[in-house]
Amino acid sequence: MPGRGGVAILALAGVLMMGACGARTAREDDREGAGARAPASAPQESSSSSSSSSIAPATTAAKAGARPRIAILGDSLTAGLGLRPSQAYPTLLQQRLDDEGLDYDVVNAGASGDTSAGGLARLGWALQGDVRVLVVALGGNDALRALPTDQLRDNLATIIERAQARGITVVLAGMEAPPNFGRDYIVAFHLVYPALAARYHVALVPFLLAGVAGIDALNQPDGMHPTAAGARLVADNVWKVLEPIAREKRVEKRSGT
Question: Using an 8 Å Cβ cutoff, are 107 and 64 in contact?
Answer without folding.
Answer: no
